[in-house]
Amino acid sequence: MLNPKRIKKDFPIFDKHPELVYLDSSATSLKPRPVIEKLLEYYTDYTANIHRGIYKNAEKSTQEYEDTRKVVAKFINAKRPEEIIFTRGTTEGINLAASTIGLDSIQKGDEVVVSRMEHHSNFVPWQQLAFQAGADFKVIELNESYELRVMSYESEKLIINLGGVVTKRTKILALTMVSNTLGTINPLKEIIAQAKKINPAIITVVDAAQAVPHMKVDVQDLGCDFLAFSGHKMLGPTGIGVLCGKYELLNKMSPYQYGGDMIRQVKIEETTFNDLPHKFEAGTPHIAGVIALKESIKYLEKIGFKNIREHEKNLTMYLAKALSYEFPNLIKCYGPRQIGHMGGIVSFTLKNLHPHDIAQILDEDNIAVRAGHHCTMPLHDFLGVPATTRASFYIYNDEDDVDKLIAGLKKTVKILK
Length: 417
Ligand SMILES: Cc1ncc(COP(=O)(O)O)c(C=O)c1O
What we know:
Layout: H1 4-8, H2 13-16, E1 21-22, H3 33-45, H4 56-75, E2 84-87, H5 90-105, E3 111-115, H6 124-133, E4 136-140, E5 151-154, E6 157-160, E7 170-176, H7 188-198, E8 203-207, H8 219-222, E9 226-230, E10 241-245, H9 247-252, E11 263-266, E12 271-273, H10 287-303, H11 305-326, E13 331-334, E14 345-350, H12 355-364, E15 367-368, E16 370-372, H13 377-383, E17 388-392, H14 399-416
Parallel strand pairs: 1-15, 3-4, 3-7, 7-8, 8-9
Antiparallel strand pairs: 2-10, 5-6, 9-10, 11-12, 13-14, 14-17, 16-17
The structure holds pyridoxal-5'-phosphate.
The site of pyridoxal-5'-phosphate (PLP) has 13 residues, from helix 5.
GO biological process, one term: cysteine metabolic process
Domain Aminotransferase class V: 21-405
Enzyme class: transferase
């Protein structure tokens, strides 16, 4: 069992702001002491660039950096550490894939498929790629349970039907594992398997920004070609992320950026490129960020993803029930009904109250929630509202936080009505 009160003690922000009710971990998570200390350790003990110097500190920083690559590979069960490319975050990972393998493989008449629930980071790069190449940009719609329309259940058995959506002409299928607005968990293993049956050459890209921090993700089990996530949503530093790609694909892809460290030899006549993963890591990376990411993984694994998932399920259910009990005629929640299909995210509207007003009044009581379109404008078109209020949970939240949110919402309704 996970103990949020104990866990809170590891997060120095609560020493400074003991009253903080932080319900915005989908935007970014708070940082525990081991992660902050690791950042400090690099800057105070062995600052040096990596893969260059042969003095002690340069060797130490290179070793810490490359150790992290191994830790990340093991964490998501990549076949080999060379499949792990450090990026600035999910956005850069997806843009890397779109502007290398995407650009190289898409031609006029091909199809690029995403879903309506994608974050703009996994929507716009593919949309723009399709537009540039003259390819068809197709969007998987949602059903009334806020799940992908290509899935249904027959007596609990999951049925996937990609017929018509994914075809032999589909070159890219890019989907989120967990929606950052609805909390919907998509059955990507089954979807990817079916897509590969329809077109074995399809390239599948998984946006795992809201999945990797909250549940065990295994890239080999998923069967995807690429998977991207961000460090800052999983207790790690901002400005660091991972793109995991299949070795054979990464190996034949053109570089994303040019510069130091990604080359083997540069001559006036020609340049040859470095081996994986360095081919995709041009310039000096966020060394401290990478090194500290290792600590966030250690911290999460110590708690255990079974515990994390269970904890978030309980809080999600507790909040969903409280909202419908306290605001029966006002509340509308946007997300799946079955708890097994929901991540730790609840987005809602309260009749005639603007989400920004709600968030502002909650902030007076130090309750941090997100209000807006959460970088999912096509999804909000489907929801029929320009904005929602979103509460998202992580390991440091507990039922007291939910009770405070409910009390804050009651106060908000009184003020605004
Ligand atoms: C599902 C999803 N994808 C992509 C992103 C983009 O992540 P980043 O801003 O860290 O690149 C986010 C961030 O909120 C997200 O929730």
